[in-house]
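User: Hello, can you help with two protein structures?

Assistant: Certainly.
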Amino acid sequence: MLHPDHAYCHADLKGFGLSQREITASVRWGAIVRARQGVYLAPASAPGVHVAARVGGLVGCVSALAALGVFVRDATATHVQVSVHATRLRLEPDVRVHWAPLRVPVPVGGVSVDLLDALI
């Protein structure tokens, strides 16, 4: 039902016909992952997507390049790009946060920056 390369908001899930009770039950059963308040993911989403969503941003920089199959020297930390005005971030160990504006807009529900933004 949920695509692993997409983040969903509560309204998206309601739009799929799920009631609040069904959303809560799906999270409990592990059919849907609640990354943070109002942000839901497919359980099959990549670990970096889960981390970026929990932090409050997008998979970026080296992590986005590695996900695209580009060789990177060190991909142990998850790089997360957030808005320059981002607040209330959930910082985690092994996360590198980049406060930077996007040069290429990410579609609603996108979980990763564009290749151009990953390279810059």
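That covers the first. Now for the second protein you mentioned:
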Amino acid sequence: MEKNGITNVICNLVTNVNNENIQIDCVAINDVDLSYKNIFKKHGGKIFVIPQRLSKPIAYIKKLVSIIKKINMIVYMRMEIVTRLLWNYLLLK
């Protein structure tokens, strides 16, 4: 995960969501900065790093299926959509 606006929004959501009721996990295609790992760990979330889809499509699919099996449910969407959904949830709450 690169240090950019979307990543910072997601980290803000992780730190501000009531982690007794909600656990936020993240799927990243890049190595994750230690500061982000610590934020997720502190709030009960996990970061799964998978290979890039275009450079290693088979490894990407295998890792993604493995994650789905581990957490029993995952919705894989583009990060922008996930961010919008989370913001809508927080604003309507």
